[in-house]
Amino acid sequence: MRSIAQSIIRVASFTGKELRELMRRPGVLLSLIVGPFLIMFIFGLGYSGARDPFVTEIVIPRGNELPRDPEYYANLAPGRLDVREVGENSEPAEERLRNGDIDLLIVAPENASTELRAGRQTTIRVAWNQIDPVYDQLAGLATSILVSSLNAEIIEQAAAEGISFAEGEIEGEVTNVPPEIIARPTTAATENVAPTAPEVLSFFGPAVFALVIQHLAITLTALSMVRERLSGQMDRFRVAPVSSMELLVGKYIAYAVLSLAVTGLVGVLLVGVLGVPLLGGWLVFAAIVLLLTFASLGVGLLISLIADSERQAVQLSMLILLASVFFSGFVLPVSDFAAWTQYISYTLPVTHGIQTLQEHMLRGGVTSIWMLWTLLAIGVVLYIGSLLRLRRVLRTAD
């Protein structure tokens, strides 16, 4: 019994010691409690829960008697189509679709009257340019709603006028129209013009890869300066013939080599084993990875210079990971959030990494060039911030 009592006393003493250590470092408790709550609070306020309607252009060939009012077609699929223009020429509209200026292109048939007189459905061509499998499904759903609404509108107008569908919609006498054509006078021929199929693995592979790059770089560097400060190594740096810039550049290079070695292996597995397309080539791919790694290393080193313990450094790293999953576009598109929340998203390096890698790998080129410049700017700002903080730490080292 005595040995059991002594064991309980020793356990209690260690428990008290750990609790006292935690209480001496309020930053750890703050990051544990306030950090996750703040992320969830911002997410709850900033997430709208609804996706923007598809920016749509409609092409109605000359001579076709269909309405040309954009509002008419927007009302056929309310909340799903944002009809910006109704034109007559399909070629410039096709170009705008491939450039990403519009989301959805609807082309009415030229020979609608002839087809209906012959007792055949008229076919409306609907095209979109999506690599996101969720948006691909939503585009198909919007098309189905549009066609169903258009058919119902045609039949309703015919019924209101007290005449047959065919006599109401086309000129001239029509006979022997099948009942199924009367019920569904129009149908849709859909096409996704994106260069890669909207598959889950292909779309989310680059996103996971970008998240791995950021988290790996942050994790490797977040503890580096903390350990040296706690071990007294900073005293040696202060008297050594080395500048804070040389010390910081050395840290960047060392952890960049390690991060890029692991990243290179993961990238080869992603493309070679999992079969995720790389349409844009390896050179630009490597440049995106370098920029993302540079910015992410800056986040980790800044954490290591402001954290007062290893626990807090780990907690801050995990908070960055949690915020990245919520706000970077990894799960939910950035456009689904309120405008002020999107500014938070764009301060995360992984947000830019995800979009540029998806564009480069799945579309063959980066259209959001500004994101590459933003990644570089984030990296430079974090480097300057880390350098200023390191100089202050070296000056105040005891």
Taken together, the total number of domains comes to 2
Look at the structure and give the mean pLDDT: 80
Q: State the low-pLDDT regions, or none.
A: 161-172
Main sheet strand line-up: 2-1-3-4-5
Beta-strand content estimate: 5-15%
Largest sheet: 5 strands, mixed
Helix-strand pattern: HHEHEHEHEHHHEHHHHHHHHH
Cα radius of gyration in angstroms: 30 Å
- Counting DSSP H or I runs of 4 or more residues, the number of helices is 17
Distance N terminus to C terminus? 48 Å
Helix fraction bin: 55-70%
Structural notes for this entry:
By secondary structure, this protein is of the alpha/beta class. The chain has two domains: 54-192, 3-Layer(aba) Sandwich (abc type-2 transporter like fold), CATH 3.40.1710; 199-396, no CATH class. 67% of the residues lie in helices and 8% in strands. It has helices spanning 2-24, 26-46, 70-76, 90-98, 112-117, 133-161, 165-169, 179-183, 200-222, 224-231, 233-239, 244-273, 282-306, 310-327, 339-345, 349-363, 369-396, and strands at 54-59, 81-87, 104-107, 122-128, 186-192. Strands 2-1-3-4-5 form a five-stranded mixed beta sheet, with helices on both faces. Helix 9 (200-222) packs antiparallel against helix 12 (244-273) and helix 13 packs parallel to helix 17 (369-396). The protein starts with a helix and ends with a helix.
